[in-house]
Amino acid sequence: MSDHPPQTYLFVPGNRPERFAKALASGADRIILDLEDAVAPADKAAARAAMAEWMAGCAPGMRDKVLIRLNDAATPWHAQDLALARSVQAVCVMLPKCEAAAQVAVVMAQLTSNATVLPLIETARGMLALPEIAAAPGVARLAFGALDYMADLDIPADSLALDVAASQIAVASRAAGLASPLAGVTPALDAAKVTDDMRHARSLGFGAKMCIHPAQVAAVRAALAPSAEELAWAHRVLQAWQASGAGAFQLDGKMVDRPVVLKAQRIAAQAARTDSSLTP
Fold first, then answer.
1. What is the pLDDT of residues 174-213, one digit of tens each?
2. What was the pLDDT predicted at 86?
3. Residue 78 CB-density burial (10 A; 0-12 exposed, 13-18 middle, 19+ buried)
4. Is the sign of the CA dihedral 154, 156, 162, 163 positive or negative?
5. What pLDDT digit, counting tens, does each position of 92-144 carry?
6. How many helices (H) and strands (E) does the chain have?
7. For the chain, percent helix, then strand, then coil, each to nearest 5?
8. Of 214, 218, 213, 212, which Cα lies nearest the Cα of 195?
9. Using CA atoms in the order 22, 51, 108, 5, what is the torsion angle rounded to 10 degrees?
10. pLDDT tens figures, 48-80
11. Contact criterion met (CB below 8 Å) for 144 and 166
12. Which of 183, 188, 263, 204 lies closest to 231, judged by CA?
């Protein structure tokens, strides 16, 4: 698991090649060339051709930032999507509606040896298979397709079942040694709504988010950045810990031990990472 996993994943319709380079320049950590929801059935073949042409001319350093979202295994386009991913030597593919580790294995068998799969958990079957999917060889991290999950269970957007599912995905990710999972997209482009959604997802154990517009990237980063108060507290804890030389000590009338120090270290590291991502 990387110490600094990507935080922002920006979708780009696979049939809009004029947007591919712009997406890479958006500041998103990763871009996802989408062959699934963003592309109508009649346009999928043209999208695959456009993606193959663009990726053939994509610089190696940029290719590492590009994922391909396949159509799911139950669709008639899945095999052709896999063939495209293999031909362009995709470094990572997103697998929608993943419901079994066997589906991950089928995809991995078609990719290059160093490629990975990012399963989207979007159905009740996928939730029940979480541990085996998370532990499957080649899985990079998990993502929660909340909108499809709502449709599968026929639940409203404010259902507590979404939080239950999200926390289970976060727990399964941690148990399998994966980076924290990706939160689902926010349909609204309003930055405040994106920030609120990411902060809520962060409280459930998520550390990244899928975006549908470049303007959402900064909002996600803002939500994941520690507040000034959190950072000040972290620095005080770390300074006191270094000065104490003890396993446990008191600060502001409260006991500070290893778990508290670890939390302070993570906050400081996240702040440093945020500053780095904003440096031109």
1. 999 999 999 999 999 999 999 999 999 999 999 999 999 9
2. 96
3. buried
4. negative
5. 999 999 999 999 999 999 999 899 999 999 999 999 999 999 999 999 999 99
6. 13, 10
7. 50, 15, 35
8. 218
9. 0
10. 999 999 999 988 888 999 999 999 999 999 999
11. yes
12. 263
Give the global pTM: 0.86
Question: Which pairing describes strands 8-13 and 30-34: parallel, antiparallel, or unpaired?
Answer: parallel
Distance CA 142, CA 179 (A): 8
Q: Is 56 exposed, middle or buried (0-12, 13-18, 19+ CB in 10 A)?
A: exposed
Beta-sheet pairing, 249-251 with 254-256? antiparallel
CA distance 38 to 237: 47
- What angle in degrees, to the nearest 10, is found between the helix axes of 44-56 and 78-87? 10
Cβ distance 180 to 167 under 8 Å?
A: no
At residue 32, what is the residue type?
I
Residue in the structure block whose two tokens are 């909340």: 146
* pLDDT attached to residue 278: 46
Angle at 64 between CA 88 and CA 165, to 5 degrees: 100
- The CA-CA-CA angle for residues 113, 118, 119, to 5°, reads 125
What is the distance of C-alpha 75 from the center of its chain? Answer: 23
